[in-house]
Amino acid sequence: MATLEIRDLHVSVDTENGTKEILKGVDLTVKQGETHAIMGPNGSGKSTLAYSLAGHPKYTITSGTVTLDGEDVLEMSVDERARAGVFLAMQYPVEVPGVSVSNFLRTSATAIRGEAPKLRTWVKEVKSAMEQLQMDPAFAERNVNEGFSGGEKKRHEILQLELLKPKIAILDETDSGLDVDALRQVSEGINRVRENGEVGTLLVTHYTRILRYIKPDYVHVFAGGRIVESGGAELADKLEAEGYESYTKGGASE
Ligand code: ADP
Ligand code: MG
Ligand code: MG
C-alpha cells in the first residue's frame, strides 16, 4: 500500500523582490485509499504544495522530505514522479499545441505503464471513460487544452486520472469554474477512481461545494504555508459556516 509522506516541507520561489518562502513546514501523510481535502484561503500556498510535489522547477525545496513508500520523491525528475504514480491535475492546465488528446493520453499511458497499451483495449478504455464523463468523442482529436472551456479542461484532467490510475492523485481546484452538472460529472469521475481503493487523493480546494460529492476522510486547513488544523469531514462543515477568517487573523495567511 503506497504512502506519501511529507515532512517539514519548506519551499521558496524567486520573485522580482528576492526569494520568498511560501511553504513553512508542511507535514502530511497520504495513504492509498484515503482522501484528504486541503482547504484554505487564496494565497495560502495550496498550489505551491501541489506543484512542489509534482516537481515544478519554479519551486525550490529549501528543507524537509517527501517520500513515496520510502523512496525520495524530491530526487526524482517530473517524469520519474509520474512513473512512480504521482499525478497532478493543475489548477490552470497548460496548452500543448500540435498534440491531440488521443495521442497525449496514449503517450502518457505508455510512459507510465512502461509499455504501449494494446490498441484495441485502449480504444475501448478511452471511449468508455469519455462517455462516462459526457465528453464528445470528437474531443479526442482536439489539441490538448487549446481553446478548451474551463469545464473541458477539468474533464480532460479527470479523463487522464481515470486512464493513468496513479497511486497518489493531487487535484488542484478541480471544482473551480464548473457549473453544477459539470461538477457532478467530474466528481463522479473522481469517485469512480477512488472506488477501487487504490488511489490516495489530495483534493485541494478553496470551496466546500465539491465535498458534497466527494467525502473526504480528512480535512486540513491550510493557512500561511502550513497546515494549521486537521480533522474529519465535519471540519469542512465548520469552514462552510465560518469561513477562514479565524485562521487568517494577524496575517497568518501570508
Ligand atoms: P493558493 O493556491 O493557496 O491560492 P499559491 O500557492 O498559488 O496559493 O500562492 C501562495 C503565495 O505564493 C502567493 O502569495 C503567491 O503570490 C505566491 N507565489 C506562488 N507561486 C509563485 C511564483 N511562481 N512566483 C511568485 N510568487 C508566487
Ligand atoms: Mg490561488
Ligand atoms: Mg491555488
Automatic annotation (TrEMBL):
Positions of the ABC transporter domain: 4-249
Gene3D superfamilies with a match to the protein in the record: P-loop containing nucleotide triphosphate hydrolases
Keywords in alphabetical order: ATP-binding, Nucleotide-binding
Keyword NADP set for record: no
Keyword tRNA processing in record: no
GO molecular function: ATP binding
Alphabetized InterPro entries for the sequence: AAA+_ATPase, ABC_transporter-like_ATP-bd, FeS-cluster_ATPase_SufC, P-loop_NTPase
Family: Belongs to the ABC transporter superfamily. Ycf16 family.
Name of protein: ABC transporter ATP-binding protein
